[in-house]
Amino acid sequence: MKKKLTIKGIAEMAGVSSATVSKVLNNTGRYSEETKQTILDLVKEHDYRPNAVAKSLRTRKSKTIGAIVPDITNEFFSRIVLAIENYCGELGYSVFICNSNESEEKELQYFKELELKGVDGLIYLSASDELFQMKTQRIPIVCIDRMPKFHNVAIITSDNFQGGMLAAERLIEKGCKNLLLVRDYRDGFPTIERVRGFEHVLRKHGLEFGEERTIKVEVGITQAKSAVDHYLQTYHKENALKFDGIFATTDWLAFGAKQALEGYGVNIPEQVKIIGYDNISLAQYTSLSSINQDKESLGKLAAERLIQMIEQETDVPSQMLTLPVELVERDSTR
Amino acid sequence: MKKKLTIKGIAEMAGVSSATVSKVLNNTGRYSEETKQTILDLVKEHDYRPNAVAKSLRTRKSKTIGAIVPDITNEFFSRIVLAIENYCGELGYSVFICNSNESEEKELQYFKELELKGVDGLIYLSASDELFQMKTQRIPIVCIDRMPKFHNVAIITSDNFQGGMLAAERLIEKGCKNLLLVRDYRDGFPTIERVRGFEHVLRKHGLEFGEERTIKVEVGITQAKSAVDHYLQTYHKENALKFDGIFATTDWLAFGAKQALEGYGVNIPEQVKIIGYDNISLAQYTSLSSINQDKESLGKLAAERLIQMIEQETDVPSQMLTLPVELVERDSTR
DNA sequence: GTGAAAGCGCTAACAG
DNA sequence: CTGTTAGCGCTTTCAC
User: Which SMART domains does this one have (chains A, B) (predicted)?
Assistant: First the structure.
């Protein structure tokens, strides 16, 4: 087991000091073209690569960021994460991915852990609105789809209000008169906006509805089944088809609703039309119309913004960027 | 912006040297109960936490591992990754997640990058069999579902041969006479085993089939559609239903096959029965029978094994652990 | 029981 | 243009 090659080793071989090697490796300071070549050759020959930990300790930069995600198992999130990782990878950043499972406690714990491990920045994804109040927040943060109450974070979100509007408009356009809203039981910021947009259009058309037209169900892959059950129950109680259109704030929810309806022999889209949200492949492959969020851009923009903040070292004012959404029509509303 | 608190700061406050503080923080060396208390109180009061980078540089341990994954967007992988992360989190390890996109080049690149960032170990997940030959492999590695050709790595895999057998047995048991195999176009280790198991049972029952009964299609979420198309084409050419049972080496493939059949008005399971592989939620929600792999155990065991290897610092011989699989029956074979 | 000192591998002044 | 020096924050002998 030969000894690990360090910058000093290269320096000795090249007959210069480690400082000089450091300079050519970082394109900083000055050095002659000649020594540069000698060093570069040596580096290549021995496949020397500088120890990132030492560098990190010295420079207080780790080329590492953290991403805190509610559930990587959910395609909506994993696609955002993938986009983040791809963009970061190109720029030499690595990313720690942490599953918070929506728990604030875990988020905080991860935050501390990541800070210690020296991440240069953090991306928070979450449907939840609440966000810890870090007094000593020294690293840049960008949030996706959440609206923290403190400053010095950038925010990337997609136009949830618009998404809700699009859904309502299409349903009404297709002749639906009695709409049903299937939503997450929690009131995360994105959900609230979607619902607001949806209701806004309903009102514009003189349609109104109260709680009894809104079903709040569990959300998440593991709970999708219970969503269906809950839905079935409610439907059963009503004992008659009281609606002809459904807007679900998630594709999984839409899928649950669809299965429940099919279980009762209801025809889609003839009797009931359905629109989901996120446009994950589940929607694509089960022919569910859905509001598409540009997951790739969401991730890429967040990473781009974060790295900007990291590398400029300048306190940018809290900014917000909103991406457009679009309706992807499939069989469930045709 | 107050100065960051270091071990020296605590030492000064406590009126001792940094060495002593280090000792109590790491339960190492000796110190009096009294100084221990003073220090611990100070630590708590100021919420001091030692800088992980410095510690890492000094000790050559980072409490960090890397996980190289083909595609985190694929639920099969993301669930394994989640299990890894959960287990590691409990033990204070963080994990870098890297998407290789099945590219060997990227794998190698990530490998080097991670090594530099000082990860203590690595987990490789992949359907691909080929694995780079690292001469200078200094950190422990565990592989999930791949069989590298060099030593000093632990291997966790699930019983793919058995999975193939289970599928064939059930299909035959249900009265299928002409089986079709839909498989990945690449010959990754897990696929090969599944096919071997499947064919083994066929032979036992005097059923034989050649290439014309085997469709090789693309795989992966983004290519699922093209799998369907490819399949449709082939089916179309045959111009008649030449089979009554399908075994697909992936749930996505099974789903593609199902959609193709439905597009042609073929009844499932009356005319054709289908069994997929992996048992991801897609299978669950589209009522596809599937061979279940215990994704949570796969991830947990891999992480457990890796951390053992890391902390024991002893060269364990190359080991292999095979997990059992089971058939989950749903409508597609009932 | 405790501290002084050395040093992990690298970079950033500052001299020369 | 290049080298010396002085750490980054922590752990670890080895003296006392």
Answer: HTH_LACI
Smallest CA–CA distance from B2 into chain A, residue: A136
Nucleotide nearest to B35 (CA to C1'): C1
A174/A223 same-domain check: yes
The domain that contains A79 carries what CATH number?
Answer: 3.40.50.2300
> Out of A51, A79, A117, whose CB is closest to B116?
A51
Q: Which residue of B has its CA nearest to A49?
A: B116
pTM: 0.91
CB proximity B17–strand C (7 Å threshold): yes
Domain shared by A311 and A204, yes or no: no
Q: Are residues B66 and B130 in the same domain?
A: yes
Which residues constitute the domain of residue A308? 62-157+295-324
| Number of domains present in the structure of chain A | 3
Please choose, from the candidates A152, A150, A125, A130, the residue with its C-alpha nearest in 3D space to the C-alpha of residue A140. Answer: A152
Shared domain for B70 and B93, answered yes or no, is yes
Which of 26-45 (B) contact A at CB < 8 A?
none
Whether A299 and A288 share a structural domain: no
Most A CBs within 10 Å, among B46, B120, B152, B281, to test the A interface: B281
Residue with tokens 């090594």: B115
Domain-located, residue A332: no
Q: Which chain A residues have a beta carbon less than 8 Å from that of B81?
A: 72, 97
**What would the pLDDT profile of A232-254 be if each residue is shown by its tens digit?**
666 666 556 678 899 999 898 88
Strand A326-328 versus strand A289-292 pairing type: antiparallel
Q: Which residues of chain A have pLDDT under 70?
A: 1-3, 127-137, 148-152, 187, 210-241, 313-318
CA distance B255 to B277: 10
Element (H, E) at B273: strand B273-278
Query: Which residue did the predictor score with more confidence, A73 or B217?
Result: A73
Prior bond of B269 cis (ω within 30°): yes
Tell the residue number behind the tokens 């080929």, with chain if given. Answer: B130
Tell me, yes or no, whether A72 and A133 share the same domain.
Answer: yes
Which B-chain residues 130-149 have CB contacts (< 8 A) with chain A? 138
B88 neighbourhood in chain A, CB within 8 Å: none
Which CA distances in Å does A177 have to A171, A180, B96? 8, 10, 50
Residue A237 in any domain: the answer is yes
- Confidence at residue B44, expressed as pLDDT on a 0 to 100 scale: 94
Tell me the residue length of chain B. Answer: 334
Are A148 and A37 within one domain? no
Whether B187 has a pLDDT exceeding 90, the answer reads: no
Same domain for B193 and B280, yes or no, is yes
Residue A57 in domain: no
Tell me the residue type at B287: S
A22: in domain: yes
Mark yes or no for CB contact B72/A81 under 8 Å: yes
B197-209 tens-digit pLDDT = 999 999 999 887 7
CB B36: neighbour CB atoms within 10 A? 16
